[in-house]
Amino acid sequence: MKQSQMLIPTLREVPADAEIASHKLLLRAGMARQLASGIYTYLPLALRTLHKIQAIVREEMNNAGAQELLMPAMQPAELWHQTGRWDVYGPELVRLRDRHDRSFALGPTHEEVITSLVRDEINSYKKLPINLYQIQTKFRDEVRPRFGLIRCREFIMKDAYSFDTTQEGLDRNFQAMYDAYTNIFTRVGLNFRAVEADAGAIGGKGTYEFMALCDIGEDTIAYSEEGDFAANLEKAEVVYKPAQKPASEAPAMEKLHTPGVKTIEQLTKALQIEAKQIVKSLIYRVDDKLVMALVRGDHELNEVKLKNLFDATFVGLATEADILSVTGAPAGFVGPVGIDKEKVEIIADNYVQDVFDGVVGANETDYHLQHVVAGRDYTVSRYADLRNITEEDVCPRTGGAIKFARGVEVGHVFKLGTKYSTAMGATYLDENGRSQPMIMGCYGIGVSRTIAAVIEQNNDENGIIWPVSIAPFHVHVIPVNVKVEEQRQISERIADELRKAGVEVLFDDRPERAGVKFKDADLIGLPLRITVSDKAAEEGMVEVRVRKTGETALVKLQDIVAEVRAMLARVDRTGAELFGV
Amino acid sequence: MKQSQMLIPTLREVPADAEIASHKLLLRAGMARQLASGIYTYLPLALRTLHKIQAIVREEMNNAGAQELLMPAMQPAELWHQTGRWDVYGPELVRLRDRHDRSFALGPTHEEVITSLVRDEINSYKKLPINLYQIQTKFRDEVRPRFGLIRCREFIMKDAYSFDTTQEGLDRNFQAMYDAYTNIFTRVGLNFRAVEADAGAIGGKGTYEFMALCDIGEDTIAYSEEGDFAANLEKAEVVYKPAQKPASEAPAMEKLHTPGVKTIEQLTKALQIEAKQIVKSLIYRVDDKLVMALVRGDHELNEVKLKNLFDATFVGLATEADILSVTGAPAGFVGPVGIDKEKVEIIADNYVQDVFDGVVGANETDYHLQHVVAGRDYTVSRYADLRNITEEDVCPRTGGAIKFARGVEVGHVFKLGTKYSTAMGATYLDENGRSQPMIMGCYGIGVSRTIAAVIEQNNDENGIIWPVSIAPFHVHVIPVNVKVEEQRQISERIADELRKAGVEVLFDDRPERAGVKFKDADLIGLPLRITVSDKAAEEGMVEVRVRKTGETALVKLQDIVAEVRAMLARVDRTGAELFGV
């Protein structure tokens, strides 16, 4: 492809509104343009990469036994009413009315559509299991679209849905998808971890998120370097290791005047104690009841764990009025001592048991209690794992050290169970003629987000560094001066020979200065750059430069095809897969 | 691909709401399912065909020098305000508001988006011409979605937009697209004509529609069997050949009492005359003025020609009140005699000149005038070609006979000119540093509609008859009884060998009766069917059947690959292209 004929509007300036590397580089390398907040046009270079990722996704999904179909973006509201999601999805769901005033959603995901399709077309165990997928444009009206292709309102997703008759069947499909995703993200050149995650609003148990590791990630991952444990912060289990009880019991409880002292930080300063000596008391509304949740002052309560403990559908901090009504005091002075358990249930994180001489709120404005002992001065209905893991905790699998990393979610595999099939009547007749709900799994990949994640992991101050497998082209051929006829001819010949050998070439035939062309080449970031100078005509040699390492080699013209293929095989593991022998 | 693992829900019943062959067959062959009116899911078989059509479109577009990108479906209303189309597009434009109450359209077409992109990224003649295309899901809230994939509310389109500095440049791009479309529709196996068409609301002059010829077409095409003339009814030029003036002039004009006689049909009966002796007078509102248009009683006024004559943006029949105010009579009794030309301009179709002794309305309820002569009894401001062509007219190119056919529009090439570039400020600096508007063309293909058009042209009472190039698979391998181990093994071996030879195979491994499998095979309509019976094991022979002709051949197992490839090459011209030697 001749660069002069391709729309690659590179930019010298760093766009003002782009905060992260991939966003800046997608704009600067002339790959994407924003049309509206969170809505982008993919220019020709980006589309080539997108198509390559899609091809890898298709290949792995088909190999895993999934079948591709294509569902509509416009989905009738009636379907969403059947699962109740029309009401619970909130403003993220893009809604519209047609000319007949009928309501539609623009699909952010397709559980409703696929479940209704399979319900209508499959009714016997003989036709199950089945796993159906599509690669399609999705719509989510994000409250804060940002980071370029990382968090968009219109984006491209691969979504798959499996239907089984048994839990073991679901386990097999789930494992096949887990393996396919591992292959896919390996093949596109990502550094990723599959982490245990919480199912969130979509429901179901047994889910993994595939996280591309990078600093800009919105999620924190806790992982162990020994073994394969990796989990979202919200999901990571905290192992309770009881502390040694001190020899002497704490003195009797005592009330302290602590005017205006409300936060843990203020308390540690005012009383000259450590945060771990304090017990935080938080009042939550959990569905229709009020709960006081206790955690140690140096720990963070985990709302997901709280929600799961009660198997609740709603968890949120209680209102000031609620807090006042059950404790008699405002937030900041709340504590478990003397609470009326008819009004509020008290639960506590396991580690609260270790606070043998603690400080809590006195349920009275400007007062706290010290020398408080659980069991002696107050009781709780149960202890449980209710807090976020920290880097001082241990791996629940190996007992080894826990590390934290940031990650961007690029894939997600879910066990849905029968949530949607039951709601929508997707049943089949089993071997005994009995009607049973199908057991479902769903599996998503953020296809367009993957472009950004790969760039986020593969760039330097000069631009993108594409993995060979999804680079828009493999090689950038650049004559130093295209107006020198011999340089031009040799460049064209090289481009031609490489193309015939299955190497994709971008030929920079623009009448620009060499410096401009080299800068653009670094920005665009194709794996290899071939520079054709007068040396080519005079000595029959061209320079081949590896974008990733900066290494250069002088290569004889007659060796160019073999040498380029060999160098591509050495660039990275994705190049080895494509060009290795 | 094993049929047991593929979602192909064939139907025995003809779906009640499907009127036309392609709609019935897409449903019956298990290729598509309706989600909502005009909104369909493409099941795996249809998606394979869709992908093949897309690959052909891509190849031809790229060969023609166009570059692929991908624009968003969600388009900010501001862009549509810039061209004024937000107001004129009407309810066909799907509109929505985001969570911040900003208005968006779901793209029915992308002139606004592409023009704003090119405006922002290209500013010099050095970067022009350029031709950009995408294959994308489009949305149009059709008033009457129907005919399955023919007229949808959500559909897949290829749209391309060219930008040039000169009219000659546009002509070249236009011709390149015309040629690419000819290749594309030939390669997918369509019987089509490129017909001259009117540009309609989108504007611009010089447009062709690529029409697939089939009876269910909503458009009528006038064409000549000599030469290549083909035009939409609305566009086809009518050549005026004046009739011989009779020797004696008509008698003096005379008023007739014609109570309740309003239509041409009633008049011919009441007065015992032919329709061609009557002059119809129709009052139109043309932008902000009223126009009386005269056509012969046996002719149809063509509103497109009327609109073009006045270079108007709006043409519509006048209201009863308007008619009364300028003629003093209601519709049905209107005529050109004695009209106040301050209130209404009178124009006439060329052929009205030939009515040497005519009948017209008397501008008085229940009265007509007879023996009316143009020029003597009334005058018009101009004569022009204002009517639809008929099969009695002649070809404007060759003078030969005109035939009519029905067609479904599958492609459209437009010369837009500077309409959008001027409205949106898409200018470039020319060689002299002067700012000029870019000259645009736009070029669409109904990709999903093409599936339906191909089926419409290629089917019989048993099902679809796929052209080789876009068949979901090339060959259907069917063991008569899959439970007979030898049949199964031979079938698998054949499927395997064919696959290795680049022939796509659907292997019917379902434990169904042979009759059911044959019926499904005819319905699905793959080009060749290979039946594996006991003869295969006993005599080493299988039967190969050509779906299109019903011919069968007994083929030796060792010859199967060569023979199947040779037969595919003979099925149709698309097979010859893929498998010919």
From TrEMBL, chains A, B:
<protein>
    <recommendedName>
        <fullName>Proline--tRNA ligase</fullName>
        <ecNumber>6.1.1.15</ecNumber>
    </recommendedName>
</protein>
<keyword id="KW-0963">Cytoplasm</keyword>
<dbReference type="InterPro" id="IPR033730">
    <property type="entry name" value="ProRS_core_prok"/>
</dbReference>
<dbReference type="InterPro" id="IPR007214">
    <property type="entry name" value="YbaK/aa-tRNA-synth-assoc-dom"/>
</dbReference>
<dbReference type="InterPro" id="IPR006195">
    <property type="entry name" value="aa-tRNA-synth_II"/>
</dbReference>
<comment type="subunit">
    <text>Homodimer.</text>
</comment>
<keyword id="KW-0067">ATP-binding</keyword>
<keyword id="KW-0648">Protein biosynthesis</keyword>
<dbReference type="GO" id="GO:0004827">
    <property type="term" value="F:proline-tRNA ligase activity"/>
</dbReference>
<keyword id="KW-0547">Nucleotide-binding</keyword>
<dbReference type="InterPro" id="IPR004500">
    <property type="entry name" value="Pro-tRNA-synth_IIa_bac-type"/>
</dbReference>
<comment type="function">
    <text>Catalyzes the attachment of proline to tRNA(Pro) in a two-step reaction: proline is first activated by ATP to form Pro-AMP and then transferred to the acceptor end of tRNA(Pro). As ProRS can inadvertently accommodate and process non-cognate amino acids such as alanine and cysteine, to avoid such errors it has two additional distinct editing activities against alanine. One activity is designated as 'pretransfer' editing and involves the tRNA(Pro)-independent hydrolysis of activated Ala-AMP.</text>
</comment>
<dbReference type="InterPro" id="IPR023717">
    <property type="entry name" value="Pro-tRNA-Synthase_IIa_type1"/>
</dbReference>
<dbReference type="InterPro" id="IPR036621">
    <property type="entry name" value="Anticodon-bd_dom_sf"/>
</dbReference>
<dbReference type="InterPro" id="IPR045864">
    <property type="entry name" value="aa-tRNA-synth_II/BPL/LPL"/>
</dbReference>
<dbReference type="InterPro" id="IPR044140">
    <property type="entry name" value="ProRS_anticodon_short"/>
</dbReference>
<dbReference type="InterPro" id="IPR036754">
    <property type="entry name" value="YbaK/aa-tRNA-synt-asso_dom_sf"/>
</dbReference>
<keyword id="KW-0030">Aminoacyl-tRNA synthetase</keyword>
<comment type="similarity">
    <text>Belongs to the class-II aminoacyl-tRNA synthetase family. ProS type 1 subfamily.</text>
</comment>
<keyword id="KW-0436">Ligase</keyword>
<dbReference type="InterPro" id="IPR004154">
    <property type="entry name" value="Anticodon-bd"/>
</dbReference>
<dbReference type="InterPro" id="IPR050062">
    <property type="entry name" value="Pro-tRNA_synthetase"/>
</dbReference>
<feature type="domain" description="Aminoacyl-transfer RNA synthetases class-II family profile">
    <location>
        <begin position="33"/>
        <end position="467"/>
    </location>
</feature>
<dbReference type="InterPro" id="IPR002316">
    <property type="entry name" value="Pro-tRNA-ligase_IIa"/>
</dbReference>
<dbReference type="Pfam" id="PF00587">
    <property type="entry name" value="tRNA-synt_2b"/>
</dbReference>
<dbReference type="Pfam" id="PF03129">
    <property type="entry name" value="HGTP_anticodon"/>
</dbReference>
<dbReference type="InterPro" id="IPR002314">
    <property type="entry name" value="aa-tRNA-synt_IIb"/>
</dbReference>
<dbReference type="Pfam" id="PF04073">
    <property type="entry name" value="tRNA_edit"/>
</dbReference>
